[in-house]
Design goal:
Length: 352
Amino acid sequence: MKAWEANIRKVVPYVPGEQPKKDRMIKLNTNENPYGPAPGVKAAAEHMDLERLRLYPDPTADLLVSALAERYGLNKDQIFVGVGSDDVLAMAFLTFFNSDKPILFPDITYSFYSVWADLYRIPYKRPALDEQFRIRKEDYDQENGGVIFPNPNAPTSLALGIRDVEDIIARNQDVIVIVDEAYIDFGGESALPLIEKYDNLLVVQTFSKSRSMAGMRIGYAMGNPVLIKAMNDVKYSFNSYTMNLPSLILGTEAVKDEAYFQETVGKIKETRERAKERLTRLGFTYPEPSANFIFATRPGTDAKTLFEALKEESIYVRYFDAPRISQYLRITIGTDEQMEAFFRFLEHYLNC
Ligand code: PMP
């Protein structure tokens, strides 16, 4: 071993879902939105003045922050934007989780949390979800250096009621509580109004799911101005220009088109309801989904074998070879046509 190898930071990286390069496939594996971005986004992209790329973008991302402030009825100093919510969450970990005490997040949750904690050397504990995959709020009553959980949770799709969310925030007022609301537009109640009541609350959302812009990479955090300034100070100590010009312009257009947003989210929720019924008829069970995916299992059917069989047919869903969830598949809600093809295969596979 070379001497310098001892000083390499060793991390086990997060493994994102597969992005196969196939023309014809049904991609229900990374919780993307099956509909395109809002028409205004496409129009703005076509008319973008590329000469402007000569200049650095606005480091304060004012255009986008202003649009979000208007949409959510907040002041600009209550909003932080970043390169997808992954970037926002990574900045939040770096900014807020600096105690010697462990941070807390569920045993079954977004698998990036433990990766950031390891990267930044933050100790952590993972209270177990109950048998029905519910967060037990009492588990968050112990001493800790911070709390983070998604609502709805991933990959379970299960939402925690707002009263329980508030309880967790209220009982942890000495630390920062981050509620990761990547999927909140599809179900569950947002904790956003609570930022006026609790100065220790940070709510994080994304353009990747309900705004159909995973490829653009935009995420945002909302909280009191002290938290937002602290995050910006860390950001400016890391990379001042996180938001490129296209993401500022196109992200702003996405926020402006409320009607398209409501329409596409509505369609996905309707398709989810139909998918639930059909899964039930085929003998699957699942926690009540509130996100744009269903976490389903079927007694007597091996999840990994089914996952592989679907893949053979170019139908991609997500499988996690992890304790407690290795017999589940996470199925993103696609268009009605995509779901039809998925179910046709299932019926054939299960001989139903
Ligand atoms: N939080 C949760 C719970 C997620 O599932 C995801 C999607 N992988 C993210 C955050 C990050 O999404 P993005 O960086 O695309 O905003």
